[in-house]
Amino acid sequence: MLGRTDRYSYFKAVILPVTLEEKPIEIEKLETSYQMGEDEKLGYNPIEKYLKASGLEKRGVSIVNIAKWMGEEETIIREYLAVMKTMDDYLDYVGYGGIYTQLDGREDQIIKLTQWLDNFYGEESAKAFDGYKNSDVDDLKMISFDYIRVVYNGQRFRNIAYGLKENHFFGDKKIWQDFRDFHFDHIEPIKDAEEKVDYDSENLEAHLNDRDNKFFEKGKNFLDENIDTHVQQLRYKQAANQPLKLVNNAIGALEAIDRRHRAFSAPEVLERIENLNQTTVDMLQNKSPERLLSQIVHLLESIKFGDGSSSKDELLKKIKEIEKIAYQLEKKVKDL
Closest Cα partner for 35 from 48, 18, 21, 20? Predict the structure, then answer.
């Protein structure tokens, strides 16, 4: 068997009439046209086209010429440059400036984020919630970077800001603010506790991948929960004209609660139940006072005493208040 050095006795080579030092742009043109031009595109890393376009622009090559050399339309080159800027911003955000290996697997989400930023900056987009500011877009950018860092599922990632305003979080002010606040409350502490980047590591890529994996392990459940919760909120809003469907969903959720679990007695849970009760009271008050009174009667009839958990004087005080309110209501009804 022939050895590797015996298989070929020669190779074809071309000696260029100029050197890189003499005419660097000419060499760039030849290299770009050969590697990425229309005549013969060679295989390359997906990130390379963005780096190439950005590098040429920084060296003073016009977008027109970059497009010709790379065999693309000018609009495509402008998109490459915009995406490259987002890529650089992302790397700076996570502390990996210039380490382009950390973009692997993240191209699609970065392209999508670039489109969102282009749409929303300027405070004029009809696809965002009314009255949004550029500072809100800054928040969108930072939150998206955290999802990009864990290489988040593309379809689920789109819920953040993709499409018409009724189809994503950034299209509804309340949903967006709740989503944003949950993210910062739960993800920022994880990032604050991260180890510093060791730029002198013997294997920097492995070190950064390990750092990202640890962020993934600690933050993934929060990232998932935040998406799931607000996708459900979006669905509720989209079904606003289907009250029966929403009421049935709410009843199903309430019936699924294990009231014996100790978490059910947590103050924040009981406070939300009170808020829920007030919401239903307001709904009945607006549409059917008779039904509301029926509910009140039912509640009064279901009260049980004798467990010693409440003060007798306090109970009598509340009963007197009920009698007073009932008397005033009776007078109002008679005056109708």
Answer: 48
Q: Does a structural domain hold residue 314?
A: no
130 with 251, same domain: the answer is yes
The tokens for 262 are: 């100790």
Shared-domain flag, residues 240 and 115: yes
Tokens of 223: 């990232």
Is residue 137 within 8 Å of 179, Cβ to Cβ? Answer: no
Token couple for 315: 């109970």
- Considering the domain architecture, whether residues 114 and 24 belong to the same structural domain is answered as no
Q: For 111-134, what is each residue's pLDDT tens digit?
A: 999 999 999 999 999 999 999 999
The tokens describing 82, both together, are 């915009």
pTM comes to 0.69
Helices (H), the chain: 24-36, 48-58, 63-70, 74-94, 107-120, 134-149, 154-157, 173-192, 204-238, 243-255, 267-287, 289-302, 312-334
